[in-house]
């Protein structure tokens, strides 16, 4: 069994709150990011990354896709409902639709199915945001493109509105790292995105 060594912890620089003001990204490279799933965690990351000016696309389906296309991503900001419309949406990912990072914020029981859908896509890094240990079956699907992580955010979606909560520096933040424990260029790039 392979073990996941935490080599970099990235924290949102904001206290635990429903307020979603501020930006988390201070970089100059125009990263192209895909969030594979529009549930709570996927929506939280899509929102924060898009608020920081990055090129963000969400892969969604069904009613959630319809709501995102119609209204943009709606969210609660200090009891005021706001929306961000700069996030692009897709229903299907083509193999030659390449992103710098694909984030997969799905439950553990959905991970193999999601990774299988990404198997033939040519993007170089797939960041799982799932609570687990042991990645052998995932490595069989996507190989060394896998970069495991754990989300430092949560919340709820009610009537198509995101109510987000973020980890503070005293609590669990977003964590990611190479399975072998090395600090690679892609880990450094991902860390820059969250600085």
Description:
- The protein is of the alpha/beta class and 195 residues long.
- It has a single domain, classed as Rossmann fold (3-Layer(aba) Sandwich), CATH 3.40.50.720.
- The chain is built from five helices and twelve strands.
- Strands 1-12-9-8-7-2-3-6 form an eight-stranded mixed β-sheet, with helices on both faces. It has a four-stranded mixed β-sheet with strand order 5-4-11-10.
- A hairpin with a 2-residue loop joins strand 4 and strand 5.
- Helix 3 packs parallel to helix 4.
- The longest helix is centred in the N-terminal third of the chain and has 12 residues.
- 34% of the residues are buried.
What is this entry, summarized?
InterPro entries: KPR_N (IPR013332), NAD(P)-bd_dom_sf (IPR036291). The protein has 195 residues and is an alpha/beta fold.
Average pLDDT: 84
- Helical fraction equals 25-40%
Largest sheet: 8 strands, mixed
Structural class: alpha/beta
CATH class: Alpha Beta
- List the total number of helices: 5
Q: Keywords for this structure?
A:
alpha/beta; four-stranded mixed β-sheet; eight-stranded mixed β-sheet; 5 helices; globular; 195 residues; 26% helix; 28% strand; 12 strands; disordered N terminus; Rossmann fold
Provide the fold topology.
Elements lengths: L7 E3 L21 E5 L3 H12 L3 E5 L2 H10 L1 E5 L2 E5 L3 E3 L10 E4 L3 H11 L7 E4 L6 H7 L3 E5 L2 E6 L2 E6 L7 E3 L8 H10 L1
Helix pairs in contact: 3-4
């Amino acid at each position: 069994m392979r073990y996941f060594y935490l080599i970099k912890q990235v924290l949102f620089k904001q206290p635990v709150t429903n307020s979603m003001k501020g930006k988390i990204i201070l970089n100059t490279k125009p990263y192209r990011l895909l969030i594979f799933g529009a549930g709570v965690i996927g929506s939280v990351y899509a929102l924060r990354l898009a608020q920081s000016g990055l090129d963000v696309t969400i892969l969604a389906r069904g009613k959630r896709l319809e709501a995102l296309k119609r209204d943009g991503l709606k969210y609660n900001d200090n009891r005021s409902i706001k929306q961000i419309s700069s996030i692009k949406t897709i229903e299907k990912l083509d193999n030659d639709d390449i992103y710098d990072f694909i984030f997969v914020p799905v439950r553990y029981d959905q991970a193999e199915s999601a990774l299988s859908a990404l198997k033939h896509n040519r993007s170089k890094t797939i960041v799982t945001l799932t609570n687990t240990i042991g990645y052998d079956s995932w490595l069989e699907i996507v190989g060394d493109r896998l970069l495991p992580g754990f989300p430092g955010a949560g919340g709820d979606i009610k009537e198509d509105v995101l109510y987000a909560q973020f980890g503070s520096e005293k609590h669990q933040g977003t964590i990611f790292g190479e399975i072998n424990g090395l600090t690679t260029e892609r880990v450094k790039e991902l860390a820059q995105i969250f600085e």
